[in-house]
Amino acid sequence: MKKLKNEKELVKKAIEAGTKYGEARGVVEFEPTDSATEKIEYIYRLLVHDKVIQPLPQDQISQLSMKHRLAIWASKLE
User: Fold this and answer.
1) Which residues does the chain have with pLDDT short of 70?
2) d(CA 39, CA 43)
């Protein structure tokens, strides 16, 4: 897994876009106390469920790989 040049910013953008996506569907309402880790996992699973992004192989699912997959998704939103 090759790190993207501006991956940190893309992850922030993915969390923002994923939150809007989930709220528009009416399936999530994040609280201010929810951690970024929880948001990343929920958004990843929601996008996989809706077939917006490809799922990771079961043995490769980790916080780092979910962040990377969301960063790639966010880079394509522009």
Assistant:
1) 78
2) 6
